[in-house]
Predict the structure.
Amino acid sequence: MANQAEGAQAYLPDGGGLTALREAVDGCRGCALYRDATQAVFGAGPAAARLLLAGEQPGDVEDRRGEPFVGPAGRVLDDALEAAGIARDEVYLTNVVKHFKFTRDERGTRRLHRTPNRTEVVACRPWLDAEIREVGPEVVVFLGATAAKAVLGSQFRVTRERGRLLTLPDELGGDTTRSALATVHPSSVLRSDREQRRAAFDGLVEDLRVIAR
Ligand code: URA
Ligand code: SF4
C-alpha cells in the first residue's frame, strides 16, 4: 500500500501516455492536498506541443472546473500569450502541483490561495516530470517562483533569471534537447497596484517573446 510520504510516484500508471496520466491523477494521495480540493487538475493542450507552460497550482475556478488557467490568472495569461504572438491552443498548460491548496476566509465563504510548500511540490513532481516526458516540448516555461524552484532548485531566483533561456536539468532532458525559461506568474500582474500593472504585464509579455523568437 502506497503511503503519502512516498509522494505521487506510486500513483503513476505504467504506460498509456497522457490519457492514462490524466485518468490516474485524481486518485493520487501523494500528499494531503487531495483531501480538501474538489478534484485534481491535470495539464491541457496538444500532446505534441512545442511549448509547455507550468504554473503553480490550480486556483479556485480551476479547482471547480477541472481545467488549468481558466480563471482570472488564465485570462491574464491568454492576453500575454496573444501579445507575445503565441497561440494558446498550441501550448500545453499545466501546474507543478495538481490539487488546489487554500484556506477559508473568516466568514468561511471565499477560498483563499495558499502557496504549496516544498514537501507538497516535491511530492507532486512525478506528474509534471511525466507530462514533460510525454509532451517532449522544445521549451518549458515556468510561471512564478514556486514553479521555477520546483524544477530548477530552491536557490533559483526568478527576479534575477527571468527571461533568459536556461537548460532543463538532465533528468528531464531525454532525447529532445530542451530549454527552459522562467518568468513571473500571471497572478502577480493581478496583484500589482494600478500604476504597476501595465509594466508587470509588459514584463511578462517581453519574457514570453523570447520564446516566440
Ligand atoms: N494559477 C496557476 O498557477 N495555475 C492555474 O491553473 C491557475 C492559476
Ligand atoms: Fe498527489 Fe499532487 Fe494532489 Fe498531492 S497535490 S495528492 S501529490 S496530485
